[in-house]
Amino acid sequence: MLLDGVLIVDTFAEAFPMTAARAIVTADSTRWAEIAGRTISGYATSVIGCDAEVAVERRLSPRETPDGRPGVSVLAFAFSREALEKALVNRVGQCVMTCPTTACYNGLPVGEKSIVVGGRLRYFGDGWQISKRLAGRRYWRLPVMDGEFVCEEAFGTVKGVAGGNLILLGTDPAGVLAAAEEAVTVMRTVEGVILPFPGGIARSGSKVGSKYKALRASTNTAYAPGLRGLVPTDLPADVRCAYEIVIDGLTLEAVERATAEGLRAGARASRGVVAATAGNYGGKLGPFHIRLHDVLKR
Fold first, then answer.
1. Please, is 99 exposed, middle or buried when counting C-beta atoms within 10 Å of its C-beta (0-12, 13-18, 19+)?
2. If pLDDT is split at 50, 70 and 90, which confidence band does 70 have?
3. What is the pLDDT of residues 10-20, one digit of tens each?
4. Buried (b) or exposed (e) across 248-268, using 16+ Cβ within 10 A?
5. What share of the chain is helix, strand, coil (3-state, %, to 5)?
6. Does the reported pTM lie above 0.85?
7. How far apart are CA 246 and CA 227, in angstroms?
């Protein structure tokens, strides 16, 4: 299949289930809400080496937030509810509660599969914390040095999809990076997904396993131009670089839609992109197989 002169390889991205939550972070200004969103998302690119995969989903207007202030929506993914709860409590406590004027609310329905966030952070109030219940939801008010920090007690979780991906291959590194950036811009408009790597793009794609037993993952040698001729390669002869965009989503449909949008925006022969493909492990890693041709046809 060709798209704007770019070969779309007949392959699939292999994704896997993870537990996901949505945090709504608000502040007195958009600037401080975005600072909190960026900070809570720090060092959260991949569960290979991080406690969670976290990124800002989108900016929120005052009409969309619980307290009528500007905000951001943040999605967080981990392998279990226990791991997600620990990661969110630490990140909200260290990165949101510390940020001037902020508050933090749950962004998903609360049911049996929920985690406790504000209910754990309340102890920071040293006995001066106050709880309020509104419309069946409990909020904690903790005294801090610019007033109070409000955090919802429980956050709902869902079984999300992580590890969706697409890889752009090209002859001009600067041009391919620009095409990947354009793809990221479009993909971020899809609700319910995040692209957790820096700027949405990973240049150090990984494979499962390593020659070193202590490592769970190592560099994806098949896509490293500098190793061409030394190891089996998946790179065409004229390709000088590959950029990967990893996608996490609350639903499989959201990840598939973001994949299609990214392919359409990133397939730019004029920028030196010659092919678009995806990483998989023969179907052995995850149950979700996102076939590039199929998502484009839909």
1. buried
2. very high
3. 999 999 999 99
4. bbbbbebbbbbbbbbbebbbb
5. 30, 35, 35
6. yes
7. 23
